[in-house]
Amino acid sequence: MNSAEPIERLTDEASLQLDERGHLCHLLTLKGLERPLMTEILDDAENYLTAPGDLPARSRSMVGRTVANLFFEPSTRTRASFDLAGKRLGADVLNLDVNTSSRKKGESILDTIYTLEAMQVDVMVVRDASAGVPAYIARHVQPHVSILNAGESDVSHPTQGLLDVLTIRQHKGIFENLAVAIVGDIRHSRVAMSAAQALTTLGVGELRLISPPVMAPDPDAVPGARIMDNLGDGLEDADVVMALRIQRERIGNLDGIPGIDEYFANFGISHESMKRAKPDAIVMHPGPMNRGIEIEGSLADGPNSVITQQVTNGVAVRMAVLDRVSKTMATRN
Amino acid sequence: MNSAEPIERLTDEASLQLDERGHLCHLLTLKGLERPLMTEILDDAENYLTAPGDLPARSRSMVGRTVANLFFEPSTRTRASFDLAGKRLGADVLNLDVNTSSRKKGESILDTIYTLEAMQVDVMVVRDASAGVPAYIARHVQPHVSILNAGESDVSHPTQGLLDVLTIRQHKGIFENLAVAIVGDIRHSRVAMSAAQALTTLGVGELRLISPPVMAPDPDAVPGARIMDNLGDGLEDADVVMALRIQRERIGNLDGIPGIDEYFANFGISHESMKRAKPDAIVMHPGPMNRGIEIEGSLADGPNSVITQQVTNGVAVRMAVLDRVSKTMATRN
Amino acid sequence: MNSAEPIERLTDEASLQLDERGHLCHLLTLKGLERPLMTEILDDAENYLTAPGDLPARSRSMVGRTVANLFFEPSTRTRASFDLAGKRLGADVLNLDVNTSSRKKGESILDTIYTLEAMQVDVMVVRDASAGVPAYIARHVQPHVSILNAGESDVSHPTQGLLDVLTIRQHKGIFENLAVAIVGDIRHSRVAMSAAQALTTLGVGELRLISPPVMAPDPDAVPGARIMDNLGDGLEDADVVMALRIQRERIGNLDGIPGIDEYFANFGISHESMKRAKPDAIVMHPGPMNRGIEIEGSLADGPNSVITQQVTNGVAVRMAVLDRVSKTMATRN
To answer: Which of residues 35-64 of A touch B (CB under 8 A)?
Structure first.
């Protein structure tokens, strides 16, 4: 789904992820996920955090349940994060590399889903390069199966959005007075879309989406956001600066898209460009980073960077979501 | 092994899978597996079934044991089914993608087996594109190691055969009065061979193998079966109709093999062709399906279809077989 | 790191793997690992051995901990060995095939490491084709994370060295009077380097490194070893003969490197060449074997071969090392 699609479909998707009691049964999008529920998920996630060097949080709440990681696009970090989240809750985790097998045999995506459902998989974690796939699957599974969107085309990446706002909340507390700048290829970024939706729901003071003009979002993609093409102005007094991963294959290959050096000079988050932000501004990146392109390496490793904390929060958020949808399903029967 | 090979070898293989007490220690073929033992396995499998939406059946009977999935051909569903079956019995499961590693280094298949044996793997689940490999391995492993055939060339796929007859038994009870039609590329189908062997053992009333002439089996491949090349006649009053997956790469590429449209028109299982079968005939398919080629999509999703039930039964049958061979090995020492 | 590098770096690496109390916190190299500690690890490993046909040894000592297998080079046996070792100690094991994902996205190796660290991975098992990578990583991880070298370029493969000396100790007891011959491409063999270091530490009587001249090590690579180019002389009265895997791609392709037949005739370990060794000499190979090139198949399967025992010892050694570094980390906080 992209911003050009009809609004019912969006509403539909948001309501599809709640059951008749308003409990979360799928996680498809952050658009339309209401603030109290989002806050509860973040609170749950905080309970899964432990001190560095301590053993990770664990529970037995998913013993007997099965989580399938169904990644139609390659991924290391998100797949590993869901894998560990499932295992640490006691679930059996099935990792399916769907590129190399079923799709080669021409099986339809729904037949793959029905097969996993018939194997009594409880939660399917889905990453796909096509828009609309997670919701499409959620509309077709049986009522006791949960679908979690682990990255959907350019559209959304809701667990990433949640870990981003959790990280911001840990450092900044409340959202109302914050200026958050997201910098990069906004138009093609599911990370930016989900972060923007979560921030809007949580009442962020000001949201700035900064990119070269060809990478700017549609004007109505994020209501209330400021679309900007000057990095310095965009970072002015910002509390939070999030650099997006640039797709190397896009760089320099299309009209109006700058080369690497030019990109870094104009849109790279660096010690230099951060001078315009507040001194205690935090620096974020969803990873994997292209150091020296969208972010200066020493900044990523510096004291204002919260990039590894985002990763830690990612496991916690996924545990919170897995546990929550499992509880929804368990109390539905 | 195919039907042209000497009968001793077949006898040999059937006896190889039983120990001196007649207990199952490997599952290599359904040919020669006697009816009481086959029935016991099906009964065990039924105990591993739970109601839809309930948690899957689990036990701790394989705690401390190791199952290795050794797939020399790619597979999603059979691999996943064995993976979950092992995990739900408490086993440690090792998934080896052998294409991309050992074979690249030129290691012989027996050296791979000896290595796994030395790592104290208890059960090796083997899929291979060459005939005879599972039995060859079974002849070479130590007496406490079990080999399960998870798909052997065009020869056999015994857990698939078991899940097929379990599904039929659930719907039709006894086999003696049933007319079962298997439709497709019989000649190259390990699924058809194992289903035919299981049905014959269980005393099926009539077994019809229906295909274009170039895909017909050798006349003596399935003693007692009717080899037919007309779909309508083949489905007449059938109780069970099983469509086989067509290999797209075979379609239209060889003399006498029809194109896709012609194949569907003449051999596709559809609402239209099913009119000749009994009204309560069940429709089966081993998956993954080519909708619109060997089976009409809406039929596969319709009330007479038992295709997803086959998948569920597949996990249960594999749990039953894993548990059984483990018990055989445990009582052998 | 190779033998041409400065000695401080070696010293550094050896000391890097011990904490301030002298406890093992990483396993990077056997060079400089002192005899009492090496002996303790071998003793621990023996406690993880069980009789053939018995269930493998298990413990719950790593419950709650996470082991990540991070293989930047393909591997079946070492990866499987660490996977089982971790699972049999109760750890959660994450298998990452890094070729096909992160590196495709251009992520730096340290960013991958920081990501895993942030996911609270406790032990990272690293195989890499570049020298120095395990130590480089160990220098950068947080103090509660352990790095285990699972094969480093041509430089070292310490768990392999440990399993080799454990196997020798089981058969020959003490090292002082032994003549050990290692045969093959010594120059490019991390297996030879680690075995030689372990044997030297344990006080082996005589160590012979036998190869065609172009495959001979640098003269100072293994102090005290005899570098030989005649197989017959090298095997004379040997107690232990270890054949190395030959890289097929090297054979016959470079000046001075013999073809396959010539290699087997001159450097192949065979019943014939073993006549020069002691009658009770044991035959070793790290696997995977090229039968008929570096070793005669029937000798590998014969009574003097301890090759599968090496594999069994490999799991035990890895359990001992995993357990030890986990205990070091647990008592550090």
So the answer is: 64
